[in-house]
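Running this now, will post back.
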Amino acid sequence: MRHRSLLILTTVITTGALTLTACGSRDDKGTSDNSSGTTTVVIGVDAPLTGSLSALGQGIKNSVDLAVQTANKNKEVPGVTFKIEALDDQAVPATGKANATKLVGIKDVLGVVGPLNSGVSQSMQADFDKANLTQVSPANTNPSLSQGDNWGKGEFKRPFKTYFRTATTDVVQGKFAANYLFKDAGKKKVFVVNDKQTYGAGLAAIFAEEFKRLGGTVVGTDSVTVKETDFSSTANKIKGSGADSVYFGGQYPEGGLLSDQVKKAGAKIPTMGGDGIYDPQFIKASGEANDGDLATSVGFPVEKLPTAKKFIADYTAAGYKDPYAAYGGYSYDAAWSIIQAVKAVVAANNGKLPDDARAKVTEAMSKVSFEGVTGKVSFDEYGDTTNKQLTVYQVKNGAWVDVKSETFKD
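Update: finished.
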C-alpha cells in the first residue's frame, strides 16, 4: 500500500502529535539531557492519526513508540535516549509536506517512520533528502518512490538516497499475483482491466507480463474510468472472450462494481486485484456474491510469524488503546532500523553523535541488517526491503480470508 484510500471499520480520534520536552541546549547532534547525562534522539512519525485511515495510522505510531521504549529499556544505544514526535498527515499530501518541513526543522530528529500513503510520501521525499534525513515507510508500494519514474520501462534510478521502506513494491506484487493465479488457482486465460491510473495501469502491466511469461494467455484487455459505475461494456467483452479469470489493476470502488457486473453478464469467474481492492468495501460494492475473488497485499499477517511473538506480547502488555493493525510489525522494524543506524554511527564516533549525524545515519542505513519482527530486515541498492513478503486473500462467506503468504523470490 498505499496510494489509495481504505475504509477502516474503526475510526479513532487522537489528540495529534506527541509533545516533546527536553533539558539542555539543542544542536544538530540531538538534545543534551543534563539531568541524565544522555543525548536525546527523536524518531519522527508521520501517519494518518485521524480520519478513515486512523486505525492504520495509530498502529504505526504505537509500534514505533514500542520500539523506542524497548531501545531505552535495553539501553540499546549507550548514552542515547530515544523519543518520538508523531504528526498527523490525515492521508493528505499537502499536510504530509508541511509535516516534513516541521520534522526537518527539529534538529533532534535523525529519522522518520512513515507515511502510510505513497502519494503523501511523494510530497515529503525531496524535503527529507535535502536535509539528509532518513525516511523509512512501513507501507508504501509505489515503485517510483525508490526506483524512479521510468521503472515501468525497465529503467531503475534511485531518486532519493534518504528513502527506505520495509514493505515491498508493486513490481513484486504484480509478479506474485500472476504466479498465484496461474500456478495455484490454475487459471490459464485472463482478461486484464485497469483504471488508467498510475497505480492500476502499472500493476496490471506487471501482472500481464509475468502471466504470459509463465505460459498463460491474456485473452483481452480493457480500461475503465475512475468514479464511473457502468462497466457493462467491459463485462460483456470479458464474457465473450472465454476468460477463466479477470485481473483488475485499480481500487476497490471500481473493482467491486466490475466483479459484480462481470458475474451479472454471465461470466462466473473470479476477479483478482492488488492491495487496492483488498478492502471490505470491495465486497460490499458487489450485489452478486463474490466468493472466490482474490486480492494480494504486501506483508504477512504478523500473527502467523514466529518472529512476531514477542512484539505481539509486548504490544499487548504496553496497553495501547489501538491495535497494531496491518503495518505494526513493519513499523516496529522501520523504527528499529533507524535505531540500529544510530547505534552504528555512535559506535563509530567514540560513543557520541557526530556533527553530521543525519548524513551519517543515512549512510549507515544501507548497511543495517538484523532479525526483526517481520523476519530479516535489510535494504537493497534502491532502499527497498530485501524481505519481499506478500499475502493472497480470498473472499469466503462474504469476508476476506488469507489463503497464502509467501516470501517472493524473483
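The radius of gyration is 22 Å. More later if anyone needs it.
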